[in-house]
Specification:
Number of helices: 1
Number of strands: 31
CATH class of the largest domain: Mainly Beta
CATH topology of the largest domain: UDP N-Acetylglucosamine Acyltransferase, domain 1
Length: 238
Amino acid sequence: GELVSALRSDDPVEVLGVNNRVELANLEDIKRGRIRERLMLNGVTISDPTSVMIDEGVTIGQDTMILPNTMLLGNTAIGSGCEIGPGSVVRDSAIGDDCKITSSAVEEAVMESSVDIGPFSHLRPGAYLESGVHIGNYVEVKESRFEAGAVMGHFGYIGDASIGSNANVGAGTVTCNYDGKDKHRCVVGKDAFVGCDTMLVAPVTLGAGAVTGAGAVVTKDVPPAGLVVGVPAKMLPR
């Protein structure tokens, strides 16, 4: 026969067996409870802890508040003084200090300090928001960079684009980045003002300080400080 010896464990949970999905769920609940407890003891506020799911690889700074029904997944890093939730999902993303994510999804994205998004917005992979950016409700951003202070307060889609510092992107703006075969980029210069319901048909560039009228369909580059209106958009004097 073989020699049999006992293994002493200081934690009885470590030797619990998993024979069905009920037992698996119970052990997962214990593990996640320990993660939440560790974070709270290190200065993170978690409202309604049992409704919050946080993976082992997540780091959170002090004085950040996690609101109910929020999921923090993968290799996510969140700074201090943030407010995440309620009902937010953040996966494999880097969130700076003093950020706010309200009822929104953030995946494989970067938010620098003092950025706020939501409710009901979606940062998809490749989204990068510099400090002081504001993204309001029902906005989707993919493979795009918003430079410091840029604003998009209401519903729209920004994909494969660069938005300059302090630019204002109006409600209903869409970057038409896919021509049915290839994707193309849009560039919006600093201090530009993109009117509501503007369609930016990529590839296209709006120069610094350029303005588009409401409902414009922009198919050609606009020079710095230029004004375009109409379908298709045409230059007007300023």
